[in-house]
Amino acid sequence: MQRPESYWLSSADAAARIPNPMYASNADGAYPGGASGRRGVCSFLRARRSCLAAGIAVLLSLGVVGLAPLTFSNKQEISQLLTTVTRDQDNMQKLFITVDALKRDQDGMRQLSTTVDALKRDLDRERSRTTALEQRIQGRTLNTCPEGYTMWRAICYKAFNTPRYFNGAEEACGEDGGTLAMPRDAETSVFLVSLYKSVSSRNFFWIGLHDRRIEGKFEWVDGSALGSYNSWEPGQPENFKGIQDCVIYHAYAVTCLKDTWNDQDCHSSNDFICQVAPASCPEGHTMWRGICYKVFSTPKTFSYAAAACRADGGTLVMPRDAKTNAFLNSLYKSVQHGRGFWIGLYYRPEEGQFEWVDGSALGLYSFWGEGQPNHRGGKKRCVVTAKLMHERDRWSDRPCSDWYCFICQASPGRA
User: Fold this and answer.
1) Which residues form a coiled coil (predicted)?
2) N or C: which end of the chain has fewer CB atoms below 10 A?
3) What is the arithmetic mean of pLDDT over 257-284?
């Protein structure tokens, strides 16, 4: 703070009145020269008090000027610091906003993930339903051929490259539920030759035509007359030596004999072609690998479920391999979403093992859930395919008195 000039003049006068020992006498303490000497000093100070004040003012000003840059520098730093803090606060606010937005997005992603999972489950159910419906439609409207047979005009055919007598060939076809092939038109004959050539390179195969009952009166093995269509080789049938009562088809003969019929001794050995009527399932059943299956959605005890299957002409299902087991789970899900279904497997304590309802042993394949079977005091002897989360689609033993839905299997009929 700057002092007024009067202050500095008063200070100078006071200083002038202070005695200086170096100038005082031992007797009275007077300055040299006495009173006149004191007056001279005072006059000197008065004359130069303006200069003294100015000098003191200059010294104080220099001090103030020296502090000024420091004050200015501090103000700049503080200003910059405030600016930085303000900017950081803005950035933090933006960061908080971003974090909030990310949280909302995360919640949205969780909801989306939940929705996607639900849609996937719905899609799986629809796929299972579609597959089962397609199989059911096939079982109802499209007849199915036995394994190894090929359908042609609603009849199933199979070529055998194992030569047999005519009677032996008939028996082999009968074991498949059919007869020797009966080509009643040219198109079927062409198909049979093509089928035969796919399995054999020999010349002849038996067809289901003969005149064993009445010589010269050929008939098909189902007892029907030959009819208007035939494909005899020129000069045939001739009944050479009176022993040619059965008919072969030339498949690889010379040009003039190719794709023609010839009567032959029934005790000669030739390849043959069988035909069977296509298999079909009863109403409401679905065919899988030549067996018809049906889901029953009314829960019953094990024994009542087995009885219902017998009344339907079959048994409780016996999934003896992984693919059949998976098919049954798919079939069940297409019509029912309960807690599981009985299968035809149960425990026989006297034997100490599980058996199928047809009396056969369980075999190598099984699909038990974790910790199963556990019997639990001997009360759990019958088997279900469970649908609970921790047992999904796996086998579990249950008390036979429990109530579950069930699936029956039956052999297909012939159209």
Assistant:
1) 109-136
2) N
3) 90
